[in-house]
Amino acid sequence: MKRIIFIVILISAFCSAVFAQDGNFEPLDRYGKVSANEEKARLDNLFIVLSREKTYEGIIILKFDKQSSVNKRIKRVKKIIGWLKFRKFDLNRITFMFAEEVSEQTTFLALAPTHKLLEDLIKDYKSAKAEEFEQKIKEIFPRN
Fold it and tell me: In DSSP terms, which residues pair with 3 in a beta bridge?
């Protein structure tokens, strides 16, 4: 029941705002540390909206806890990619963006129109398409 209510809220949020008229970013969902099943449910909701909106791409912005190791960060992204593959979702339609470290882990799920607006949004972040992540690990998470 909670999941159905959450889906309705998510779809309502999408209908009202993906990006504000002035182009400012407005996430569909934002959450801190949650269980693996809760994160999968939230990702599924993003996939549902994306399946209806063919001209949009999914954006997953990850802000990592300052205390988390590089290995934990990579493992988390790989788990999300694993869920994308399990759901047979097109990896080309998901872009990961890696933001500054924060005091506690935060994840944002959003949609962006493909092409120009997406390029403008990701220019200030380290980013990678889901399918490119393996090739970009060292660039995104340099080891000192």
Answer: none
CA distance 35 to 75: 15
Residues in Cβ contact with 61 at an 8 Å cutoff, skipping those fewer than 6 apart: 27, 96, 97, 98, 99, 107, 108, 109, 110, 125
66, 93 in Cβ contact below 8 A? no
pLDDT beyond 60 at 118? no
Instruction: Residue 80: name the closest of 121, 34, 49 by CA.
Output: 34
Supply φ then ψ for residue 126, to 5 degrees. -75, 135
CB 118 within 8 A of CB 95: yes
Nearest to 36 by CA among 114, 133, 107: 107
E-assigned strand segments in the chain: 29-31, 56-63, 94-98, 106-113, 126-129
pLDDT at 19: 44
Contact yes or no for 96/46 (Cβ under 8 A): no
50-93 pLDDT per residue, tens: 999 888 889 898 998 888 888 998 999 999 999 999 999 888 88
CA dihedral of 6, 7, 9, 13, whole degrees rounded to 10 = 130
